[in-house]
Amino acid sequence: MAPDKAVVPLHVPGLTWLPSGQSALSGDLLELDDRLDGVFRSWAGQRGAAAYRVPTFIAASDLARLDYFYSFPHLITFPVTLEASEANLARFAEQAPAAGEVRLTETAPVRDVLTPAACYHFYSLLRGRALPGPIYLTTRATCFRREAFYVPLERQWAFSMREIVCLGTADEVKAFLEAEQARVAGFAARIGLPLEFQNATDPFFNPSRNPKYLMQKLEPVKTEMVFQGRLAIGSLNFHRNYFGEAFEIRRAGAEAFSGCVAFGIERWVGAVVRQFGPKAGDWPSLAQ
Question: Which among 156, 70, 160, 61 is positioned nearest to 111, based on CA atoms?
């Protein structure tokens, strides 16, 4: 898949873009990032969501429980270190980087993965728990997904994700997602940001490899917040009991259901800039 040539990449004060698929924000643009995340954080607070700071890495064994390696090998980014023998380190040190590339010698065993989605950490943390009622959690994490191409504030190798997560019964999770969709829709309408809510296939399984994809097609599990008819800047996800089963989390005597609302912070920043222009004075008030 190639970039949409009709979409002009953003050039706005406060944005420094690195071709590796990363961005640095400063000035008004960083303030917009903070303000938007503050809105989403306040919604989590109104839910009584417990706030977490999650690690940068997630255990490879936890992602293996989710069939992630089988379904999405092309997206994974690994933290890699060198095998620590003196001979191996010496071979590596003797090499000169060529054209900005570092050639690795023998690597140590890889047991972790750079976080691909913020909410994955919660299911690992709750492993084996029986929940007395619905619970709500929130975090903002830097996530990593290796892709075929990158676009500033739209498609990045490293990006920020704010999530609000609910675990409970099916009815409890569905009620949470319905209420949060209405909240997002009301907020977008108030600030004048055009959003459409579109059903999509939740990216848990490679459709060509996993029969569970059919179940997702029969009952959509992901609703995307689509800006300009082309870019998902967030999503609402009904996981059914997939994570509850994988991590033995129970609610009301059965495997817990879960769902999350996810916001791509850079994408929200980019959407505001595209809709209202690069000058901070033209941006809408985000006051609650």
Answer: 61
Q: What is the Cα–Cα distance from 25 to 215, expressed in whole angstroms?
A: 40
Instruction: Classify residue 282 by its DSSP letter.
Output: G
Q: For the range 211-219, what are the long-range contacts, defined as Cβ-Cβ under 8 Å and sequence gap of 24 or more?
A: none
Query: What contacts 133, CB < 8 A, 6 or more positions away?
Result: 168
Instruction: For residue 159, count CB atoms less than 10 angstroms from its CB and return exposed for 0-12, middle for 13-18, buried for 19 or more.
Output: buried
Q: Are 244 and 256 in contact (CB under 8 A)?
A: yes
- Reported residue count of the chain is 288
3-state secondary structure of 195: strand
CA distances to 220, 245, 266 from 210, in Å: 16, 17, 31
**Are 108 and 82 in contact, with CB atoms under 8 Å apart?**
yes
pTM assigned to the model: 0.91
The number of CA neighbours under 13 Å toward the Cβ of 284 is 19
**Domains and their CATH numbers in the chain:** 15-77+116-282 (3.30.930.10), 81-113 (no CATH)
Question: What is the tens place of the pLDDT at every residue in 60-109?
Answer: 999 999 888 887 898 999 999 999 999 999 999 998 888 888 999 999 99
Name residues of the chain where pLDDT drops below 50: 1-2, 5, 214-215, 217-218
